[in-house]
Amino acid sequence: ASQFPSRRRVEPITTHTGPANQSQHSSSSSSSSIMAESVIPEMPPTMCLEKPSIEFSYVGIDAILEQMRRKAMKQGFELNIMVVGQSGLGKSTLMNTLFKSKVSRKSFPGTAEEKIPKTIEIKSISHDIEEKGVRMKLTVIDTPGFGDQINNENCWQPIMKFINDQYEQYLQEEINIDRKKRIPDSRVHCCIYFIPPTGHCLRPLDVEFMRRLSKVVNIVPVIAKADTLTLEERDFFKKKIREELRANGIDVYPQKEFDEDAEDRMINEKIREMIPFAVVGSDQEYQVNGRRLLGRKTKWGTIEVENIAHCEFAYLRDLLIRTHMQNIKDITSSIHYEMYRVRRLNENNTQANGLGEHHPACREI
Ligand SMILES: Nc1nc2c(ncn2[C@@H]2O[C@H](COP(=O)(O)OP(=O)(O)OP(=O)(O)O)[C@@H](O)[C@H]2O)c(=O)[nH]1
Ligand SMILES: [Mg+2]
């Protein structure tokens, strides 16, 4: 019954817009149902313009929302998140936390309790989540930790290359004459940057990394292993990091300049005041007060990773999945990818001989 709500709503208008439309319909589509519906008195179209009656003034534009909802339900959603940071900060653990947390616990099969190995290559793991008929493919891209070398000068390069490679793949699909109706989207929508919980300040490596990456991808900084800081240390460190980001001109997500209106600004301002999220990760479940929850068991108690009184993982998850997913994707596509696309196409135009191996779009910023 709810299949054609929009059609029902516009009925009065259809009948009132008069014979011009109706006769066109019946002659072009020769549909008998339309003919049967047309119980309209013959009147010139001008009359409709002169005397719009109040009960017929409802056009039904709002029905577009229902159409969009159904289309989106059919297509499903995709979100690609990347985790980046120094080795051993808990990137792989947090990736598992995300999969096992409320986002997908119902559908997650639950692996044997084994230790997460050191990540040695960039690896994507996808998981299909379904809730209330809405399907979502959540992909987390795990990256090997950096900062272990004596010289960590260019350790951001493989990450930057991976991000640009995904833009390039998308671009190639887009400019293809025979392009797919729906281009597979492997672009990195968001990069979670792990800051070590030193409690002091950002390291030059963190500044360098985020400064470069924030120009090509949405960066969400987090304080890793926040259970190692006291509440005062955590607050101080968060404040200090915000100051340093500002001082170094690093624009992390949600970027001020992309707030669309006052409401956006108000919501995003609250998030900007919370950033970086102090997170704790775990893929182990424990029984606490009769409930099973993800946590880290210590000698002095269990840290519940999804409990906002314990850490800010839930805020991070909600930002990524519940409240800002569409915006994160929109900024990726209309700002970051667009910049890449313009640069690449300009470069194509100037280089008559086609592409070399190192086109400027992939060069460092
Ligand atoms: N205290 C604490 N330990 C954590 C947390 N998250 C992960 N760990 C532990 O830190 C160690 C390293 O975790 P991983 O998830 O492998 O770290 P990684 O960043 O993926 O490391 P690489 O793959 O080498 O880059 C493991 O022993 C985890 O159990 C956390 O939030 N707090
Ligand atoms: Mg790892």
From TrEMBL:
Entries under InterPro entries matching the protein? G_SEPTIN_dom (IPR030379), P-loop_NTPase (IPR027417), Septin (IPR016491)
Which SUPFAM superfamilies does the annotation name?
Answer: P-loop containing nucleoside triphosphate hydrolases
This protein's species is Cyprinus carpio
GO BP term, example? cell division
Q: Where is the Septin-type G domain?
A: 75-347
Keyword annotations of the record: Cell cycle, Cell division, Cytoplasm, Cytoskeleton, GTP-binding, Nucleotide-binding
Protein name (record): Septin
Gene3D superfamilies recorded:
P-loop containing nucleotide triphosphate hydrolases (3.40.50.300)
Segments of this protein annotated with the region Disordered: 1-36
What domain of life does the UniProt record list for this protein's source?
Eukaryota
